[in-house]
Amino acid sequence: MRKIALAGFISLSSVTAGYAQDASDKTTIIHAGQMLDVESGKLLQDRFIIIDGDTIRNVLTLNDMEDMEEEDIDFIDLSNMYVLPGLTDAHVHLTSDANVHGYKRLTRSTPRAAITGVRNAKRTLMAGFTTVRNVGAPGFTDVDLMEAIEDGDVPGPTIIPAGRSIGITGGHCDNNLLPFENRRKAGGVADGPWAVRAKVRENKKFGAKVIKFCGTGGVLSKGTKVGAQQFAFEEMKAIVDEAHLLGMKVAVHAHGQEGINTAIEAGVDSVEHSSFISDAGIRAVKANGTYLSMDVYVSDYILSEGEAAGILEESLAKERTVGKIQRERFQAAVKAGAKMAYGTDAGVYPHGDNGRQLAYMVKWGMSPLQAIQTATINNAKLFGLESQIGSLKSGKMADIIAVENNPLSDVSELEHVDFVMKGGAVFKSKVE
Ligand code: ARG
Question: Is the pTM for the entire model greater than 0.85?
Fold first, then answer.
């Protein structure tokens, strides 16, 4: 390191506010005391992550560093920390809030939802989640939020927005709270193969980068059954074909077995919730390479806080069966070796608590490494962003987090992330 003129430690005064300094054209070196290679599961000692602007140039040992001749480098000392790639969440609703459920939702305008999203985007990033898939938002508030973050107006993770979730009339993705004379219809409602194709095209036109549709009833919607399939095979197939033609992945909300099996056959890329997935369903996802995104934490929040938050009694009743079985089926899917993603349904529970699910995954059959892999490399593959995120490798985005203690010993360490860099810019640092 002798030839390196360190420009000094970066100023963290702007960091605490959650707004990072411009990372566009400088070189930063992070000294990682322990760096987790999420693919091999190895902890590598004393690695130096060289970052140009927003991209990782290289990861070097001290020996390799001797040959570097550079000046004006910002140096970040994480020599006492465990350094990992930024975490990711495949299933969030940034524009929704945990204390706004049931009929309270009807009091919220779309602009209000966008403002909620601004606050939640920051919380999510500060929790160490540097990329999220936003699978359903009123209007296209998630697209606007993505753009505001990209423009540097507000801090937040990289967002893959779905825009409006597509669903049948009266289904989980519709709004069924009001009687006929005050009827409401959610923006993503469409019936019939051609109508759903048109919805996919419209979502794409207004900025969606992933398609979400509802393939069964749900817990939180009024008058739907979690076990009942929504959309016929032909409609699901039309959604998937059209989305794939347009270069977008498809996530299906599905709890019941029939809906799950039909959606897998239609070619979806991930099954969200997957609560009652059958053994045949697990075999089918393995054969097709479909990811399971099972939100095994949220049930505890719904059952303890749900009533106060305005969740309908009928939803609480549904959750009492769904949560328990979902965890058992998660365990079965892990044991069978199904591909697992990390999706949590943040927005049902408070944003920023996204990391809590990791410990639940470990409790229900995963090793800490496997759980961390779901939230890093597995999600990166599901998102089609494997060349950009998910591990700390040359050419990938400098999305980097750090914690004080070994997350492979106790994965709940990741519930309190101490350092967050996104795209080469530091947003959070408790490091002196
Ligand atoms: N948004 C989902 C639904 O309403 C939440 C399900 C939460 N419950 C669970 N056990 N994962 O269906």
Answer: yes
